[in-house]
Every structure is written in structure tokens, then in C-alpha cells.
Amino acid sequence: MAKDAPRRWDRRMQQRLAHGEAAALGELYDRFASLVHGLAHRVLGDEDAADRLTREVFAHIWENPDAYDPKQGSLRSWVATLTHQRAVRRLRQTESAALARSGEGTAEDLERKVRRASAAARADYIVTAMPAPLRAALELAYFQRRDYRQTAADLGVTEDEARRRLRLGLQLLSTANDAAGPAEPHPAQGPPPGYGRAL
Question: How far is CA 32 from CA 22, 39, 57, 129, 143, in A?
Fold first, then answer.
């Protein structure tokens, strides 16, 4: 029942946007603007470019509310997928133009840069979307250099539970590279592999 509450919100939000309710766009922006901007900035590495892309993503959602299908997954995943695809496309365009102007580097260098930026953005998304207990365990292990025993003590769980949380968190995080290649699914097809598994 509680799990279905976010899906009900997603469906209702899609309906409100389809009816042209400006307040719905404001509510959607309040909820997802930091996600969109963060992903865009992670891929593009530029504040102004991330600002522009954030505006473009919300303009696209406002103009195309029916592009989201609640049956395909969560609204959060769809917004993240839309942002990720547009950011990767923009990075590829700007880097291709820079390569053409300077003549320095190769197409392979460009694709490596795009894949790295794409995987980094996907990893950020996965970490923020994973359940709080897994995220807390990973943060202790990574940022504070705690082993599983120390993590267990800090979290007040058994050592077996700490190991389980770390293992699951790392398995989710390892999917960041799964779809970091050039192929990009259409937003209506749902999230790429790294997204859905994190929810």
C-alpha cells in the first residue's frame, strides 16, 4: 500500500500536467529540480550549461506531459532518464564541435569522455536513489574509511547486516557502467539499466 503511494502521485502529477495545471509544474520543479540540475552538471561539468538544460527539461515536460507513461516506471526515473539523455547528447555535440575546431584528439577520445561523464552521472543517481540504509553503509565505508565491523557498530546493526548492505550497495553502484555506452533508449521506453535497479 505504501509502495503504491509514490506511483499514485506520479499518475496524478502526469494528469495534472496534461490538463495544463501550472501549479503542477511548480510542484514537479520543486521536487526534481535539484536532481535534474545535479545530473546535468555531472555530465556537462558547467553550471550555465546545467542551468540551461534544467530549463529545457522542464519545458519539455510541460509541453509533452503525455510522453511519460506511469506504467513504464516512476516519474523520478523518467525525469532522470530524460535529463541524462539530453545531457549526454549535449556533451557529445559540444565536444564534437570543439574537436572539429581544434583538430586535437580523436573521436575515440570524445566517446571515452562521454562514457565517463555518463557513468559518473548514473552513479550519482544510483547513490541518491538507493535505500537510505544502503547509502549510509556505503558513505561510512567510502568517506570515513570504515570496515564492515566499524560500519556495523556505527549503524547499530550486526556485522552480517553491515556486509549485506555494503554488498547490495556496491552491486547497485556497479550498474553505473552498464549503459554508459553510446546507445541511448528513447525516454518513453523507460529508464536505462543503471536507473531502474536503484529504485
Answer: 15, 11, 11, 12, 26
Supply 4's cell numbers: 503504491
Alpha-carbon torsion angle 42, 46, 52, 55, nearest 10: 30
Count CB atoms within 10 A of the CB of residue 147. Answer: 12
SS3 21: coil
Q: Name the grid cell of 47.
A: 553550471
d(CA 168, CA 31): 27
Q: Between vectors from CA 106 to CA 105 and to CA 108, what angle results, nearest 5°?
A: 130
* pLDDT tens per residue across span 101-129: 887 777 788 888 888 888 888 888 888 78
CA 70 – CA 18 distance, rounded (Å): 13
Measured between alpha carbons, how far is 30 from 59 in angstroms, rounded to an integer?
14
Average pLDDT over residues 75-87: 93
Cα Rg of the chain, angstroms: 19
Going by C-alpha positions, the residue among 145, 30, 62, 49 that lies closest to residue 89 is 49
